[in-house]
């Protein structure tokens, strides 16, 4: 009994030490966020385009109609990833990220006659890319974590090295006749241990440490409550641990538990196939958008019955995925549209705040930097012309088929508090 008691005490002490280490690591991460997120973005002042990219998309492609249709920041904010219609993924570094703090406004104006700089990595896929995402714990200081995943037509899921461009491993799903079937959307779970992938009427869950064909298959059309159609988007709640949302081209959004994939409820209301889902920072609200649907819908997942509000964007005539994003404070949402405008909405009231012209083309993606007062946008669309049309049709301007990085004016926490006390409502509230 004495030895058993000693072992039990030792285990309890070991568990306590592990808990202390976890708490310390959590506090350290929270402190990093506080250190980096002190600027409060001002949306009443138009942003300045600091970096611009268009010509390398065209000059490196035999297809003059090539355009970027996605831009995603790395979790550590050191670089961003773009995807283009020529089946390529590009990694761009963010030079002098700390310089945006030196002044309240950036005086640099992009010269659209030339790209700001070239990508430091280009990965070529064999077929059109359906979706891509960063490993959630990616850090430039740790090369092991510098990876991103992509899924392409008729191919397995690829895990790429973001520094060398080498293929780390693949995750393969097979259909009923033992042929490889491609995922339409992918996403890492918050723990970074699994890849969730959406297929036609099903989801597959891969363990990232076990590449190959092993996966857990989950049908989305079993039982009474069903989510038919292609699963086109996946998002995980940042606060409600173990909860995820999946959007379907069948115009529905489903909420699941991660541990046992129990279906909690299904949301109806999108006019078109759901192409993007995203949780609010506190995890209490879910935002969904669809193709050929002019509204982003806000849902309160604690009720999941009524629509809280709708946010308009110009997207009635395109099948493109138009990806929106929420700022690091969780106070505002930015979205592009067919008119080339980016609209900013206040998520506390659902009211329009401001807008700016980001391109002369469809802005198919808008993404906030994880902690700097910056954002990225990509724009373009596929143009169809007859053989008799002149090649000059493809003589596009620098504001078409392009990607841009924007710098916003900002105020410090102290300035924001003073402004709020004086009644200035133009500044974002400190959450």
From TrEMBL:
Region feature Disordered, mapped onto this chain: 1-26
Stored SUPFAM superfamilies: WD40 repeat-like
Q: What is this protein called?
A: Telomerase Cajal body protein 1
């Amino acid at each position: 009994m004495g030895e058993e008691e000693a072992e039990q005490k030792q285990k309890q002490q070991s568990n306590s030490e592990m808990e202390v280490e976890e708490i310390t690591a959590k506090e350290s991460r929270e402190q990093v966020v506080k250190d980096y997120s002190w600027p409060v973005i001002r949306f009443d002042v138009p942003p300045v385009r600091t970096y611009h990219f268009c010509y390398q998309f065209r000059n490196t492609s035999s297809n003059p109609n090539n355009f970027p249709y996605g831009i995603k920041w790395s979790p550590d904010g050191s670089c961003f990833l773009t995807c283009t219609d020529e089946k390529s993924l590009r990694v761009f570094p963010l030079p002098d990220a700390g310089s945006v703090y030196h002044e309240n406004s950036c005086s640099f104006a992009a010269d659209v006659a030339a790209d700001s700089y070239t990508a430091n990595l280009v990965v070529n896929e064999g077929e059109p890319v359906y979706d891509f995402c960063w490993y959630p714990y990616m850090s430039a200081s740790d090369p092991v974590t510098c990876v991103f995943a992509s899924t392409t037509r008729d191919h397995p899921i690829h895990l790429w090295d973001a520094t060398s461009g080498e293929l780390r491993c693949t995750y393969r799903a097979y259909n009923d006749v033992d042929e490889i079937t491609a995922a339409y959307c992918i996403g890492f779970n918050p723990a970074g241990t699994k890849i969730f992938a959406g297929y036609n009427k099903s989801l597959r869950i891969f363990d990232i440490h076990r590449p190959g064909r092993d996966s857990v298959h989950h049908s989305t059309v079993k039982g009474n409550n069903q989510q038919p159609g292609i699963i086109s988007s996946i998002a995980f709640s940042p606060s409600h641990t173990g909860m995820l949302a999946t959007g379907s081209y069948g115009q529905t959004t489903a909420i699941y538990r991660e541990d046992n994939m129990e279906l909690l409820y299904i949301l109806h209301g999108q006019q078109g196939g759901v192409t993007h889902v995203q949780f609010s920072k506190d995890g209490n609200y879910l935002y969904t958008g669809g193709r050929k649907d002019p509204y982003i819908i806000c849902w309160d997942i604690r009720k999941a019955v009524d629509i809280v509000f709708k946010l308009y964007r110009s997207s009635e005539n395109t099948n493109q995925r138009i990806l929106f994003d929420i700022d690091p404070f969780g106070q505002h949402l930015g979205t592009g549209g067919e008119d080339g405008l980016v609209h900013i909405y206040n998520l506390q009231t659902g009211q329009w705040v401001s807008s700016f012209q980001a391109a002369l083309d469809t802005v198919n993606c808008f993404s906030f930097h994880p902690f700097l007062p910056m954002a990225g946008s990509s724009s373009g669309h596929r143009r169809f012309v007859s053989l008799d049309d002149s090649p000059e049709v493809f003589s596009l301007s620098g504001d078409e088929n392009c990607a841009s990085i924007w710098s916003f004016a900002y105020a410090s926490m102290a300035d924001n508090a003073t402004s709020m006390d004086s009644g200035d409502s133009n500044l974002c509230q400190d959450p």
